[in-house]
Amino acid sequence: MNEPIDGLMVLLVLLNLWLLASSRLIACTRIVAAEGIALGLLPLLLSWDQGISGRLWFIAAASVIIRGVIFPQLLLKALRQANVQREVEPFVGYSLSIVIGVLTLAISFWLISRLPLPETPHLALLLPVALSTILIGLFVIISRKIAINQVLGYLVMENGIYVLGLALVKEIPALVELGVLLDAFVGVFVMTIATYHISREFEHLDADQLDSLKG
Amino acid sequence: MLMEMSWLLWPLLIVPALGALVCLLLRSPKTVLAGVCAVVAAEAVATGAAVWAVFAHGPVEACAGWFYLDALSAYHLAILLAVFGLSSVYAWFYFGHEERAGHFSLRTARRFGALWLGSLGAMALVLISNNLGVVWVGVEATTLLTAFLICLHRSPGSLEAMWKYLIVCSVGVAFAFIGTLLIGAAAGQAHLPAGDALLWTRLRDVAPDLNPALLKMAFIFMLVGYGTKAGLAPMHNWLPDAHSQAPAPVSAVFSGFLLNSALYCILRCLPLVEAATGNIGWATGLLTLVGLVSIVVAAAFILFQRDAKRLLAYSSVEHMGIIALGVGLGGVGVFAAMFHVLNHSLCKPLAFFSAGRLGQRFGTHDLGVLAGAARSAPLWGGGLFVSLLALIGVAPFAIFMSEFLILKAAVDKGDFLVMAIFLAGLSIVFVAALRYAIAAAWGKSSEQPAPAQPLPIEKSTLIEKALVWAPLGLLLAVGLWMPDFLRETLTQASGIITGGP
Fold first, then answer.
1. CA-to-CA distance for B193 and B199, rounded, in angstroms?
2. pLDDT value, residue B452
3. Which residues contact A82 (CB under 8 A, 6 or more apart)?
4. Which residues 127-186 of A have a C-beta within 8 angstroms of B?
5. Domain-embedded: residue A168
6. B309, B359 in Cβ contact below 8 A?
7. What is the mean pLDDT of residues B338-358?
8. Half-sphere exposure of A135 (CA within 13 A, CB side)
9. Is A215 part of a structural domain of the chain?
């Protein structure tokens, strides 16, 4: 089952770059949702040959539903409430963002090739893509001003960490995995409520203007 | 001796979780505040039993090794309950005052009760979990549960602080998860069965065989990740905002234990990394560096601070740095650092209590306005004065003793550069904070036109007096004479960090 996994990784890279190029927040939310659904399928593909246990089906289903359906619904609702459509002036422009996205990919391939990491199949592609996804998530958090976009960046980072976990650790105990998923779920929930309050209090969602506390 | 006593550890999670749910059903703000105190008291009893079992019979294990309580975690658990106990009683007075003024609705009260007890449960989960993955889940849960405690009273400032806290700490703690995964990968290489791969006790047994390069990477991620939550510089910039904007009882818990619970995670991983890298002091060296940076950065900001709660927040950065430095230096420093955890967690809540009540009274936390507070509000003004003295390390309070021991550890090690930087940082903080402490006691309020009617001398109840003087008395007593059981506890706890049996 090598080709589907490689295909999935390429898809993830393309979605990341597309996210970096998009200014419409609804489109960004949908891209991150697509990433979530794709990643939910990844553990199934990874252990296709060994046979898939009921536990794995359950976690994959939970992951797809939470990342692919619930998160985007929460975020779209927050967008409607705050009444913002697009990020007009990010700190880093959209074309430069794509260049930086490609650069993170190159850096990730170079870094991973130099690290003494355990030998497992598929790693050649999984690890660098995971690392570059984490870096792109971080970049989105830093370079975008609208609070919802920062939540999306956080989600992209979580997606990267999820791939990293699948690549590095053979079998994370189900309880831990569910705990992590639950934390991500509550995290996004809390963040969207926070954006709601911010947009009501300040009448905008510009995290850049949250800068009165200093020193 | 290892005991399988799951009945001792389960209540630690069940009591706060149930309490949090019950708080959502109570019908008046006063009953919520009373309910919180009752639940924390029940949790204290459960903690007392578990801690007693650990020190009488050795580590307690439960739930097939997923829960594990040894001297290090039991010691932290006891401090957690002390901080929450004091702060819950204080919350009764603090929010009681707001309720009379009509600023504390039932909705707010219920939210406070549920999140307060929920975060107590999450911190207990961090301490009693043996699985590093569950520890991480607990730390992230504390971030999410405490975020809305910061903006209990919604204002532009508190929302800004909450958003910063939420994003910075979530991203930071995500780094710690990468570190956890790397440790899991190393365990897989050492052929630990998948189910055991993240259990701390199993990792400790095989630590010398773990891949040193992977563990080094893991430690860097953990230090950055949990260090963000612990407020270690240069990852500290969420901290002063959150501490200054949160209501005082919440700031007290943030400073008194939230930071320590994250630092505890770093301390847990330290012996694993040291054993895997061959005990050459690689990880402790990093910790020393981060500790020194924190002390210096905090000192620089304290020098120009005018807001009482921000000053206390930077002082927390300093004290977390001191604890990290002590552990990094090794030897008697680890013992002293553990002692410092207790001292700081007793003293800092008290300082926030005082600053909070003075803030309610004067309507500001500006230190210029608070000058002379000890005259019109003897109890809380006096509390602020004495707790500031204790915090900057005036003898014979216990903080002086632990800082002195850490200095001695630096001298023992022959690390005179570290010693010099540490001393310089302490002196700057000493002078800068002393200025305000003296002003609080004897100064004249500079920036406020004298009120038409002078504020009446406050009357305080016996419990409020006990809230101020009991921790101070304890600090004084422990500073003058350390009882044997405390010495034994500290020795055992520091033994676990240095990788002893």
1. 10
2. 46
3. A148, A195, A196, A199, A205
4. 134, 138, 141, 147, 150, 154, 157-158, 161, 164-165, 168-173, 175-176, 179-180, 182-183, 186
5. yes
6. yes
7. 95
8. 21
9. no
Report the half-sphere exposure of B258 (CA within 13 A, side-chain side).
33
What ipTM does the predicted assembly reach? Answer: 0.91
Q: Looking at the complex, does the CB of residue A114 fall below 8 Å from at least one CB of chain B? A: no
- Which residues in chain B are closer than 8 Å to A207, comparing Cβ atoms? 163, 167
Tokens (6 digits) for B348:
């800092």
Instruction: For residue A212, tell me if it sits in a domain.
Output: no
Which one of B170, B198, B310 has the shortest CB-CB distance to A176?
B198
**Residues of chain B found within 8 Å of residue A212, distances taken between Cβ atoms:** 156-157, 160
Closest to B367 measured CA to CA, from B344, B351, B379: B351
Output the 3-class SS for A134-174: HHHHHHHHHHCCEHHHHHHHHHHHHHHHHHHHHHHCCCCCH
On whether residue A102 sits in a domain, the answer given is yes
Domain boundaries defined on chain B: 1-130, 133-280, 281-446+456-501
Domain count, chain A: 1
Contacts of A190 in chain B (CB under 8 A): 144, 147-148, 166
Which tens digit of pLDDT belongs to each residue from A55-85? Answer: 888 888 988 999 899 999 999 988 888 888 8
Full residue range of the structural domain in which residue A198 is found: 2-207
Shortest Cα–Cα distance, A211 to chain B (Å): 7
Residue with tokens 């597309």: A18
